[in-house]
Amino acid sequence: MIASSNFARLQAERLIRAFNLFPKHSLNTAVDDSDTVLGPKLIEKQFRFYTLGDPGPSVPDFGHHAGYYKLPHTQAARMFYFFFESRQNKNDPVVIWLTGGPGCSSELALFYENGPFHLANNFSLVWNDYGWDKVSNLLFVDQPTGTGFSYTSNENDIRHDEAGVSNDLYDFLQAFFKEHPQYAKNDFYITGESYAGHYIPAFAARVHQGNKAKEGIHINLKGFAIGNGLTDPEIQYKAYPDYALDMKLIKQSDYDSIQRVIPACEQAIKTCESDGGEACVDSYSVCNNVFNRIMRIAGDINYYDIRKKCVGDLCYDFSNMETFLNKKSVRDALGVGDIDFVSCSSTVYEAMLMDWMRNLEVGIPALLEDGIKVLIYAGEYDLICNWLGNSKWVHAMEWSGQKEFGAAPAVPFKVDSAEAGQMKNHGPLTFLKVHDAGHMVPMDQPKASLHMLRSWMQGNLATAETEERISPK
Q1: Which PROSITE patterns match (predicted)?
Q2: For 44-58, what is each residue's pLDDT tens digit?
């Protein structure tokens, strides 16, 4: 297990360096301040950043908020969040966004993907014409504990599984809607990407369970969307060689060689499912051997977007975010005091190793049967959570509409009358492959991602601009 854990830490550090991020700490910890914050409660302040340009049509004085919530089922954990009121209408749905990693801050998405503004090279903020706050009241949460500005003084608060993660998020939501009762009646959607393919199904099931049991405030959950997620590892790891061969990252001889290590991965996942604990940590090492063999052959490609090269470890440069959020003036505006911003936590990554190879697809059919809408989307040029693996698990999922979904035609997803993707739909389930995008669809295709979110929430994604039907590939 020690070897597996060391391997995971190296993988986490490689991930962080790929974004040109250098957090000062591997985990966000702080001195316990329980004397000043008594009991589980939400402390929030409205803030205003100086932004360039015009945000466009808006409700009067739309608010930007940041806050901390003292998580009740922990020793000393505080969850940090941003909340941006809709630029259009406060009755728009409430959408929460979760970034993966595990252990990467949702501020990555806020400033580089779908937040209200983007961060320019001179550290000024520019309004994002395709921010998701144009169609929703938007929440970004730093989780699990130790990520971003979320912190604890007690390492027992670090989460290792989806039960801990989803309970913390549910507790936060209850506090958020108690503080903002005017939004509790709005439709609610869960979104995110990458390792959030684990977080999101567990969180959605927790919200649905809470609603059924009449726990606390009823949350008007309508659906969830996973972008380039890791949800069913056994199916998705088996798809790596197929995707790599299709995209000409490897040759047929490489494919044949890599296929021979797939059975060991399958067996390791089955052992994880039956034994748990260390077997799950070991399965991480065994199965990542499949991915790493492909990368050794492919060389310096960016595994988040195979159209691009990486220079050394550097695949993206998100360092401005780290610099910006650690400025004293910004920390004062957000009310985080002396807390350092931990962009990606290698400790959180390592702590979730026992969770990595778990299959989170298993909870989705029950949600579909109850009419919860599910959107699985993926940029076509991402290797690490590729569209093919996602398509395979979605098609393999057993639910009452499985046969009809499988038989449904693939149709073009159109934006401004141009094809922006390929889509399949039946009932509450939609799968969408997004063209000309890698792992981070809202960054690569901002207009298409906003159109996708709006149409999906309005219930017409499957019919919006899809007049021209084509055969499934």
Answers
A1: CARBOXYPEPT_SER_HIS, CARBOXYPEPT_SER_SER
A2: 767 766 555 666 655
Percent of the chain at pLDDT > 90 equals 68
Instruction: Give the model's pLDDT for residue 48.
Output: 67
pLDDT of residue 297: 96
Nearest to 108 by CA among 142, 70, 66, 154: 142
Cβ neighbours of residue 468 closer than 8 Å, sequence gap 6 or more? 411, 412
Q: What residues are labeled active site?
A: 194, 382, 439
The residues facing 52 across adjacent strands are 126
Give me the domains of the chain, ranges plus CATH numbers: 18-233+319-350+356-458 (3.40.50.1820)
Question: Residue 335 has what pLDDT?
Answer: 87
pLDDT at 74: 85
The Cα–Cα gap between 147 and 164 comes to: 15
Residues of the chain where predicted confidence (pLDDT) is lower than 50: 1-2, 34-38, 59-60, 465-473
